[in-house]
Amino acid sequence: MNILIPDFIDVEIPDTEREVAGDGAAIVTLRERLPERVGEAIWSAADAVISWGYMPFDGATIARMTRCRAIVAAMVGYDHIDIAAAGNRGIAVCNVPDYGTTEIADHAIALMLALRRGIASFQDALRADPRVGWRFDAAPLIGRSRGKRFGVVGLGAIGTAAALRAGALGMTVSFHDPFARAGLDLALGFERRHDLDELLAEADVVSLHALLTDATRGLIGRAALARMKPGAILINTARGAIVDLDALHDALREGRLGGAGLDVLPNEPPDPDHPLIAAWRRRESWLDGRLLITPHAAFYSAEGIVDLRRKSVEAAVAMVRHGRPINCVNRHLMPTG
Predict the structure, then answer these.
(1) Residues 17-50: tens digit of each pLDDT
(2) What's the start-to-end Cα distance of the chain, in Å?
(3) pLDDT digits 0-9 by tens, 80-120
(4) C-beta separation of 268 from 276 below 8 A
């Protein structure tokens, strides 16, 4: 069995992959970002491909994988893979939805608390001048979390974990997820909102935990931001393209939105000249203390990376050796019979 990882992360040699795949498996790791930089012989020899999300997998690339039986996205999202093209060729596309659940949920709550408790603002003020900055009111968004409403968009595993953490802080939790099964709200003690606009209008904090799809791309744009509760905080640890960055700039600039914590952006790394990014870097007064940006790091922990690498190979091996797809996201697009 040959497993190809064409866009491997820049870490140590893949001992984890070899250990999980077992004897008789060949692991080929590259650090490419463009499919055309991978030779035809390498593509055609792969029984399974593991992708770290740095390389797009369109129909033309997938057609080069003449032996491939599985493409495993080493992440929760799989929007960089043409799952229909893979399904038409009988290739299972699998993801790893359970590797960094707690890390991402922790990060979402950390962004919220860093804004609500002024952590970054206080540190910046004190670093600039320890005497002048010694003020408890130096943070623009400081306030109480208990009794506030935490709104979740996308109540999957990560959204649920973040919501439970918010509930432990004494917040009321509501969620919007058209795919969440009936009764989940009763089981968890959350309030379900079938209308996204209703959730946006009532939540003091809106935390995004949805996959990037045609339906969610640009979901939080000008109209959605205008419906949000004045002074609310937006948190995004899902996918950057869910939020319209231009619209977010305007909502913050006009003071309609209280603040935002972003771990993901539409373009990564971001364009330093984008109006929002440029204002944040200059620490303009209207934005200072109201925007936190982290470098798509919510998923990361040393333990989580080990889990992710192990689970990715397990999914590839299960499909190639046993014909058993794990977390297959395109089963409905594969030939039957």
Answers:
(1) 989 999 889 999 999 999 999 999 999 999 999 9
(2) 25
(3) 999 999 999 999 999 999 888 999 999 999 999 999 999 99
(4) no
For this structure, is 239 an active site residue? yes
Let me know the angle formed at the C-alpha of 128 by 125 and 132, rounded to the nearest 5 degrees: 65
Catalytic residue among 18, 296, 310, 321: 296
Q: Residue 332 corresponds to which tokens in the numbers above?
A: 């409905």
CA–CA distance, 328 with 124 (Å, rounded to integer): 46
Q: Which tens digit of pLDDT belongs to each residue from 263-307?
A: 999 999 999 999 999 999 999 999 999 999 999 999 999 999 999
Tell the residue number behind the tokens 């099964």, with chain if given: 181
Q: Which of 165, 176, 209, 239 is catalytic?
A: 239
Q: What is the pLDDT of residue 308?
A: 93
Kindly state the helix (H) or strand (E) to which residue 50 belongs, with its residue range.
strand 48-51
What is residue 23's predicted lDDT score, i.e. its pLDDT? Answer: 86
Distance between CA 252 and CA 264 in Å, rounded? 17
Mean pLDDT score of the chain: 95
Rounded CA gap, 308 and 100, in Å? 8
Strands of the 191-192 sheet, one edge to the other: 191-192, 172-176, 149-153, 205-208, 233-236, 259-262, 291-293
Question: 144 — alpha (psi -120 to 50), left (phi > 0) or beta?
Answer: beta
Catalytic residue among 12, 181, 268, 322: 268
Which of the 8 DSSP states describes residue 35? G
Taken in order 200, 105, 78, 291, the sign of the CA dihedral is positive
Residue 209 CA to residue 157 CA, distance in Å, equals 9
Kindly tell me the burial class for residue 201, based on how many C-beta atoms sit within 10 Å of its own C-beta (0-12, 13-18, 19 or more): middle
Q: Please say if 144 is a catalytic residue.
A: no
**Active-site residue 18, yes or no?**
no
